[in-house]
Each structure stands twice: as C-alpha cells, then as structure tokens.
UniProtKB/TrEMBL annotation:
Pathway: Steroid biosynthesis; cholesterol biosynthesis. The chain crosses the membrane at residues 207-229, 249-272, 293-312, 324-343, 454-474, 480-499, 520-541, 561-580. Residues 53-111 are annotated as: Disordered. Residues 66-75 have a biased composition (Low complexity). It comes from Scytalopus superciliaris. It is an enzyme of class 1 (oxidoreductase). One of its GO terms (cellular component) is endoplasmic reticulum membrane. This is Delta(14)-sterol reductase LBR.
Length: 613
C-alpha cells in the first residue's frame, strides 16, 4: 500500500484541474482509500488532487530559477555572437543605430513577456473577484470576456505561447502532450462562441438495435392493451389471459374526436403568452432555444375547464366506459405523429439531428427520434408533449376513475384507497409542472430525439399505464384502515422528499454553484468545467432521484392491496426503466467525464439502492 508523501498542513504547489498551472495550496487531509489529497487554495476553494498533481515548493522554485537564468533574450544574444563573422573588428564593433535597435528589440521582448504573464495569471488564477471556479465553471462577466479576447490576440503566434510558458516554468519542455493540453485549455477559456460541430453517426445502438426497436414498437401497444383488458376482468390473475375483443370494438370515431379536442386544447394553453421565457442548454451549433414556462398555468386552466363540465353535469365517467378506445385513439395519433416527425427530419440540417437517433437505420431512428427539437415556428413539439397532454391527462383520467367508482358502487364519497392513489399521483404531476424548467436539463430534451418512443410514451404510456392503480380500484375495491393509510402516506412522503430534495440540490448547483446555501457541498472538478457532487444526496447514491421515484411508485400501488400483482406492474416496470436509464447514464457520464467519473464512482459506490445496488 503506497504511503503518503505530503503531511497535513504542509504548504505545497497544487495543479489547478483542467490546466497546467500550479498554485500554492495547503494539504488538508488524505484519503487512504482513493489516495487523494484534499487541498485548500488561498481563496478557500477545496479540491481533491492526486499525488501526481502536487509538487513541493522547493522543486517548483528551483525550476523557476533555472528558466529565468536562460531567458530567450540571452539565448538569442549568444546565438548571434556565435554566428558573427571571423573578422574581430566587425564582430565586436556596432554602429550606434544597430545598438539602439538591439536595445529596443530587447526592451520590447521584456515588455511583451511582462504583459503576457499577468494575462495568463488573471485568466487562470482562482480568485473571488475574477474567475473563481465552483463546480469547475468560471463565472462569465464582461471583464473576464475582455481578458479572454485580449489574451487570444496577445498570445499569437503559437511560438509566443511556448516562449512565455517555458520561461515561467508553467509546463515541462519535454512533454509534447502537455502542449496540446495548453492549446485545448486556451480554447476552453478564450472561446467566446462555441465551435459549430455536426453530430456524428450514432454507433452505440440501444434497445437491442434495429431488431429490438422493431419488437418494442409491437410490444408496447400490446402491453397497454393487455394491462387494460386484465383490469376489466373479475379475476385479473396473470395466468387468466383475457379474451381478445373484436377489432371494431376498439375504435370509435367520437372517442378519437374527443382525444383530438383534448390535444389541441392543451396546445392552445401552451401558446398563451403567459409565463416566463427561458433558454435551454446550448445546442451543438452553439444556439439556445427559448421555451415558455407555463405548464402550471395550463394545469389551472384545465382544472377550471373540468370544473365547468362537471357543473353542467357532464358525465366524466364516460372516460372509464371507453377507456380502451381512448387508449387505441391515443396510440393511433402517436403513430401518425411519429411518421410526420420522421418525414420532416429528413430535411433537417445535420446539426439539428439527435445524437442518439442518427444511426442511418430507418427503424432505429424512427423509434428513438431522428430530429432533436422539431418545431413548427416557435411551437416545440417534443417539449409540449413531454408535460402537457399526457401528464395533465393522467390527472384527468384518475379523476374520471374516482367518479366512476362512486357511481358504480353507489358511494357518497370515494374510497380511502382511491383518495390515496389520486392524491399521491396528483402531487407528483403538480410538482413536475411547478418545476417545469428543470425538464430542460433532462436527457429527453438534451439528447433523445422526438420519435415513436417519446410520442407513444408521452401520449399513451403515461396517461393509460400510470393510472393503472385507479383503473384497477374501480373494478376491484380495496378497503384499508386509517393506520394503514397513514403508513402508506409516510412511505410516499419519504420517497417524495428524497426525489425533490435530490433534484433541487442538483438543479441549484447547476444554476448557481457559488450560492452560499451550497457552501457545504463538496464536488470533484471535471475537464468539462462541471463538477460532480460527492456530498448531500449525491454522495449517498449516484442516482438518489431514481431511489425516490421507486419508493413513490411503491406507495402508489400499496392502496390496491396484495390480492393481485397487476397493480404492482408499475413498480416492476419503473425499476426496470430506471435501471436501464442508470446504465445509460453511467455510459454517458464515463465518456463525458473520464477519470473524474471513475473517482466519483470510488467515492459513491452504490448506484440506486444503498448497500444493495
């Protein structure tokens, strides 16, 4: 086992992550497991560094004195003397004009060197008032941008960069790879506009590639139909396979018209000029799309519209009576929408294609989505479907099931089980709409294209599978006591607290890493400029939001009792879905963060379930 080289409290020179510059730091502690030193910079920033990134002050000063003793001006003077002709008179004698020119050139060289070095230090030095890096990202101000532009012009050509850095011992002269790192770092800090880069072809195919995605396109609609038919049966056992209905009974034009009316009503609410407009994450071409955040307003307007319908005695349980026909109508609409999305994506520019849906295979790109952000004017189709028709429709479906239970069983008020299922899922939807802006950083928006997978998931799977518990309780009422209800509520509250606090912690850290409220959080800096949290919920497991999701899913199913496993399909599905997403996230993060992600995995070994997985 290797022994530590530096003691606690020792003053050493630590390399700033992502650069080749060293600063005076104090060793705070040493981790025997990861073999990382926790060091503290003068501005208070604490980072974890490898031993190879730390040097003693004596060796650093020795190299600096060596480089200063052989400055470029002296080397150029010695070379010029050695190349002088053999005539001693002309070799030693210079005209007054040549002497003045030589002195001016030497003075100019010294001035340029003295001007270039402060710019380097101003740009890279972590300080409170300049480019202090919390989470590895420099704060962007006009002053910093100006310094970056001046530096970009000052350090041209490349020979000038090499001369300045070598003179002040900022890198090893023998290591050519360090030279490439300097130029890449210079691009990171000095580039004002991102470089346009067209996405490459998708090589790592998910879901089993072409064959797997084709099978999923058949399996997903069949699964929805199977689950709904099972809930209609008196005995919804898995071995009691339901009889297939006649094809003509699965379609009703009136139902399809109502679904279209619902979809375009939500589109109308989406286009209302209310709510703030925010920018999404930068695209591959450097642009940022704008999004109007008014999902919660759309929910309020929808609730008002439903209230008006109920006031005029509209039979909302009609949705329960024709539930399967509504699901078929939604599936047909999502298929038609997917065809439209793929056809229009064939004319989309290369930089607007999805990184995960640009394989060149028709079936795969059709399923995963070929275009990243399909828009009709300013109307973003993917963003709209992500939270509006399906998510708000989920709440409407649950309400229809509650009213259907009261009518079928002649109840003056809904059962306690139905109230719990409706309340828990209503809280989840309201939370998503209230924190609508957070969805802009998810992989659904930033990475996945809009194709059959998201269209079917948003419009069919969410409203008709997520409401499975309420649909089940209508035909299979379950009586629970108040103490049991209190215990189930506690489970849901625990899951929701983990889910919301973990997501808030992550989103606040991304938005403003310098927030004093986050001063207690520690992180591992990465070469991308971002940081990986290793304290709080994200130091407990790697995906605490997934853990909260699974606990809430269990609480949604518990009111249905334990007579059948069907209501727990959602829990099983959710675990499988999140494990798949977690594996995809692991692969994506490993490619993106490299060594920093490996260090993070050493610090946080559990993925979703602590001490289990």
């Amino acid at each position: 086992m290797p022994s530590r080289k530096y003691a606690d409290g020792e003053m050493v020179m630590g390399r700033w992550p992502g650069s080749v510059l060293y600063y005076e730091v104090q060793v705070a502690s040493y981790d025997d497991v990861t073999h990382l030193y926790t060091v503290k910079y003068k501005d208070g920033t604490e980072l974890a560094l490898k031993e190879s990134d730390i040097r003693s002050q004596s060796s650093f000063k020795h190299r600096k004195s060596q480089s200063s003793s052989s400055s470029p001006s002296r080397r150029s003077t010695s070379r010029s003397r050695s190349r002088s002709p053999g005539r001693p008179g002309k070799g030693r004698r210079r005209s007054s004009s040549q002497s003045r020119e030589h002195k001016n050139d030497k003075k100019k060289t010294v001035q340029e060197t003295s001007l270039a070095l402060p710019l380097v230090l101003v740009l890279f030095k972590p300080s409170e008032n300049n480019t202090k890096r919390y989470n590895g990202e420099p704060e962007s101000t006009e002053k910093n941008d100006t310094s970056c532009i001046v530096l970009e012009h000052k350090l041209k050509p490349d020979l000038e960069v090499k001369r300045v850095l070598e003179q002040y011992s900022l890198r090893s002269r023998k290591d050519e790879k360090k030279k490439e790192e300097i130029y890449s770092e210079k691009k990171i800090f000095t580039t004002v506009k991102p470089i346009e880069k067209a996405p490459s072809k998708t090589k790592d195919l998910e879901f089993g590639g072409r064959i797997g995605t084709f099978m999923l396109m058949l399996f997903l609609p069949a699964t929805v139909l199977y689950l709904l038919l099972m809930c209609k049966q008196d005995d919804p056992s898995l071995m009691n396979f339901p009889a297939l209905p006649a094809l003509e009974s699965l379609w009703e034009t009136r139902v399809f018209g109502i679904f279209l009316l619902w979809f375009f009503l939500q589109a109308l609410f989406y286009m209302l000029p209310i709510g703030k407009v925010v920018e999404g994450l930068p695209l591959s071409n450097g642009k940022k799309l704008q999004y109007r955040i008014n999902g919660f307003y759309a929910f309020i307007f929808t609730a008002a519209a439903i209230g008006i319908l109920l006031y005029f005695q509209f039979e909302l349980h009609y949705l329960y009576d024709h539930f399967i026909q509504f699901a078929v109508s939604a599936a047909a609409f999502s298929l038609a929408l997917s065809i439209y999305l793929y056809v229009r994506s064939l004319k989309a520019p290369e930089e607007e294609l999805a990184p995960g849906g640009n394989s060149g295979y028709f079936i795969y790109d059709f399923f995963t989505g070929h275009e990243l952000n399909p828009r009709i004017g300013s109307f973003d189709l993917k963003y709209f479907c992500e939270l509006r028709p399906g998510l708000i429709g989920w709440v409407v479906v649950n309400l229809a099931m509650l009213l259907a239970e009261m009518k079928i069983h002649n109840l003056s008020m809904p059962s306690l089980s139905m109230i719990l299922a409706n309340s828990f899922q209503l809280l989840y939807v309201v939370d998503a709409l209230w924190n609508e802006e957070a969805v802009l950083t998810t992989m659904d928006i930033t990475h996945d294209g809009f194709g059959f997978m998201l269209a079917f998931g948003d419009l069919v799977w969410v409203p008709f599978v997520y409401s499975l518990q309420a649909f089940y309780l209508v035909g299979h009422p379950t009586v629970i006591s108040w103490p049991v209800a209190a215990a189930i509520t506690t489970v849901n509250c625990v899951g929701y607290y983990i889910f919301r606090s973990a997501n808030s912690q992550k989103n606040n850290f991304r938005r403003n890493p310098a927030d004093p409220k986050l001063a207690n959080l520690k992180f591992i800096p990465t070469a991308t400029g971002k940081g990986l949290l290793v304290t709080g919920w994200w130091g407990f497991v790697r995906h605490p939001n997934y853990l909260g999701d699974i606990i809430m899913a269990l609480a949604w199913s518990l009111p249905c009792g334990f007579n059948h496993i069907l209501p727990y399909f959602y829990v099983i599905y959710f675990i499988c879905l999140l494990v798949h997403r977690e594996a995809r996230d692991e692969h994506h993060c490993k490619q993106k963060y490299g060594l920093a992600w490996e260090r993070y995995c050493q610090r946080v070994p559990y993925r979703i379930f602590p001490y289990i997985y």
